[in-house]
Structure formats: C-alpha cells, structure tokens
Amino acid sequence: MDFAEKLMKEIHSAIGQNKRFILGVDGLSRSGKTTLVKRLGSMLDSKDIQNLIIHIDDHIVERKSRYNTGQDEWREYYYLQWDIESLKEILFEKLISSSELKLPYYDNYLDRHEYKNLNIADKKVIFVEGIFLLRKEWSSFFDFTVFLDCPREVRFSRESMKTQQNIEKFTKRYWKAEDFYMKKVRPIEKAQLVLSCDKLVKE
C-alpha cells in the first residue's frame, strides 16, 4: 500500500509530538472502508502502535427515530440515522484528549442500545470509519481523512442477493442521500487522500 507510507509519516509525526492521531475513513456504502481500516490497524499492530477502530454504524439510532418519521426516506438516512449532535459531544469532542469513551452500541436484533466504556488512554491512533464522516458537524475533529471512491455499480454488486432485491429502498433512501452528500459536502475535494476501490483490491 503505497499510500500507507504517507499515512505512517503523519502518524509518526503526531506520536513524536505525544499527540493522539485521529484518522477518518469516509466512503459510500460498500466502498471498502472496513477492509482498509483493518489493514491499517494490522500494520500498526505489527509496529506495536496501539490503535482502535470505531465504526460509526455501531452507533445508529433506534428504528422509530429513523423510519416512518414523515420525512423523505433519504433525509431520514442522511439526517436521522445517527444522532449527529450527540455523537459530536460523546465521541468526536473526546477523541483527542480523553482517556475513556462511553458510547451507545446499537443491537439490531433487539432494536436498542447498550452503553459500553472504552478505555482509550493508551491508544496512539484512533480510526473512525463510516459514511458521511465529512459532514460539517464532524469533519474538524480529524487529523487526516481518507475517502474511498468507488462506483455505485461496484458497491451494489457487493450487496447480498437478498439485499439487492429491495431496489426501491436503494433508490429512495440510500442513493438519494449519497447523491446529496457528494453534491453538498464534496468529500472528494475535502479529504486529504482519495483512494479508488480498484487500488484497494489490487493491494
């Protein structure tokens, strides 16, 4: 991963200044975000650099707060899928200097949250991966951001056959929200590093 050299320079610079490094990995659904952070986390593990991966999708809200709200489905997904302001306060504002996080983890089966405490005192690098990370409420909290650029047809092909059959949900909910994000926020222009999913697969 040639791009990893650039990231490692940024990380070592922060560590050298005794700072925690916060890396945001953004990208639309099924673009390869989880694969990337796992690879980078393993690379840091091999160098004995303590790190933690936080998946934004672990912290979505209950169904009643994001479905059948009276708003357009794409707006529910973009604006209501997460409690944007709450995550800003309990997660993003605490990443740099806090020694512990208390976060709500969503149980999809039970449709409820379980709060867990995360000890991050020894973490030198924290990865946050998820869609829409570069929205204005969160973008300023990252030391470095990566955006995974992947065509819709490639991402859709990675969904299960059962999921692909619900095409109406994609057209009304997911894809409209993605289009809004790409046009309004312009994450490709904002991210410090843009990677194609082809490059990620090859490496």
Topology, pairings included?
Elements (H helix, E strand, L loop, with lengths): L1 H15 L4 E7 L5 H14 L4 E5 L17 H8 L3 H7 L9 E8 L4 E8 L5 E6 L13 E6 L2 H6 L3 H4 L2 H18 L2 H4 L2 E4 H6 L1
Helix pairs in contact: 3-7
Detailed description of the structure:
- The protein is of the alpha/beta class and 203 residues long.
- The protein has one domain: 3-Layer(aba) Sandwich (Rossmann fold).
- The chain is built from 9 helices and 7 strands.
- It has helices at residues 2-16, 33-46, 73-80, 84-90, 152-157, 161-164, 167-184, 187-190, 197-202; strands spanning 21-27, 51-55, 100-107, 112-119, 125-130, 144-149, 193-196.
- The protein is globular.
- The termini are close together.
- The mean pLDDT is 94.
CATH architecture: 3-Layer(aba) Sandwich
Structural domain count: 1
State the major sheet: 5 strands, parallel
Question: What is the structural class?
Answer: alpha/beta
Helix content: 40-55%
Q: What is the top-level CATH class?
A: Alpha Beta
According to DSSP, the number of beta strands is 7
Record the strand order, biggest sheet. Answer: 2-5-1-6-7
Tell me the radius of gyration.
17 Å
Superfamily (CATH H level) name: P-loop containing nucleotide triphosphate hydrolases
Unreliable segments (pLDDT under 50, ≥5 consecutive)? none
What is the molecular shape? Answer: globular
Q: Topology as H/E string?
A: HEHEHHEEEEHHHHEH
Content of β-strand: 15-25%
Spatial separation of the terminal alpha carbons: 6 Å
Question: Whole-number average pLDDT?
Answer: 94
Could you say what the CATH topology is called?
A: Rossmann fold
